[in-house]
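Annex B. Sample input.
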Amino acid sequence: MSAAAPTERPKATTPTSLGGLLPFMRPYRLQIGLAVVFLILAAVATLLFPLALRHLIDGGLVSLDRGAQTMGLRGHFLQLFGVAVLLGLSSALRFYFVSWLGDRITADLRNAVYSHVLRQSPQFFETTQTGEVLSRLTTDTTLVQTVVGSSLSMGLRNLVTGLGALVMLVWTNPYVMTQVLLILLLVVLPSMWFGRRVRKLSRASQDRVADSSAIAAEVLNAIPIVQSYTAENREARRFADATEHAFSTAVRRSRARSGLVAFIIISTAALLLWGLYQGTQAVIAGDISAGHLGQTVVYIIILAGAVAVLGEVYGDLLRAAGASERLMELLSLESPVQSPAQPVAAAQPQGGSALVFEQITFHYPSRPAQAALAGFSLDVKPGQTVALVGPSGAGKSTVFGLLLRYYDPASGRIALDGVPIDQLSLHDLRSRIGIVPQDPVIFSTSALENIRYGKPGASDEQVRTAAHAAFADEFISKLPEGYDTFLGERGVRLSGGQRQRIAIARATLKNPPLLLLDEATSALDAQSERMVQAALESAMKDRTTLVIAHRLATVQQADHIVVLDHGRLVEQGTHAQLVARGGVYAGLAALQFNA
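Annex B, continued. Sample output.
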């Protein structure tokens, strides 16, 4: 197993990369509008507080009449309490709607990415590790949720309050704050340089986390092999190296981000303190009142706090922008295999499908120089059983892959029941085909649901009938909870032969007109093989069947045998005809039957 190879990434990430989330936000305009309304109310309440404080100082504390002073203080404190109530209610409602939006948009995003990945062709999975996809579905979407459900709201609120405070400061102290604003340019330019550094390291950190996730997913899916080669320590070290690399990248990101935050806070505080100093001088000179100075102090505190929070939020936005960019990369991928815009509605055949391959040539994307099939032609009549034999790498599994449209051939034509398969919708095409693979897939659910996967709407009785036909009912009934027994991840609680019979029952339940058997009895012992072979022969009646087999004893009774070698059809005929011909098939038969 090789280490996860990081894929090439775009060089720059900016907060505008979050624009890819807009399609996921549009359905929730009402909730967004309400969140914005309450956000603005919270900002307005915050900005009203210094004004109320100024009135309290100038109107309630400076008055010489004690009675008027007492009544004035009550009124001013009621004003402050009213501002606090407005701030509390609007902040609570803003928090609710923003949190709801974060959770809802993240769920929609996860569903969209997962659904899109499921529709990618095998070519995608040849170049992208499963662990990386899982990292994007979990880590990246969590970052997006943090920003949409928290940081973005905080940033907008502090942006509004900060700008409001700045406007009030400029309005009430125009000369001093004009100086401050001019000097603020000296803060912005270095901050932009820091920001670029943080952006690059944020994206690199997320990529390194995805690399370690890819390694973990690969190893955990192959744990029996890892343990059989006593490679636990070696794999643990490999994972530790990947996580250490991710940690060191994260430390560099945090260091750069910390420097950015520190610079913004210190430089901004210095400039605002200069403005405060000028205000105190104005009070001493009698140009402004004490209440005016108090108002100025609170606005300066609001502005400084807003700038500090915006520095933090900007870092979160950069990380989320990188995560959003990675997710949008997945969503922008288009599978090279697509259903046609106007698919043909082919009639459901009776007695099996007719199948035609005409001069098929195909190269796997990962091996463009080597033809997996070259000039392959085959005509299969309805109800026929055709066996594909030949050495490993001859192209047998490629025939199945092209028939299922996992790939499209470079040239040639494949027709099912007289209709080219690229004119059928992928759903219609694949619903007509049942497959029993050499390595059966068992899902982490019950035996009943594993078989029902072939036909989701099937009744329990139909599932049991299919299990009987595949000789699976006997061992399923003996499981602790029968058909409701949980089979474990990838069917670890079953033997290889039992997993194979579950897969055969699943295909039998689907009842397709075309059946593909890829070494379907290879994992069975002699007794089970005889039972399953009989079940398969029964299932193959009234349908077309293609069989891949290395053990020629299983295909001697096939109607037609096709011999492939290096992607080319070299012989075809019945078992007796091919043995009599003395060619490639006869050589394979002599080796196996003599042994």
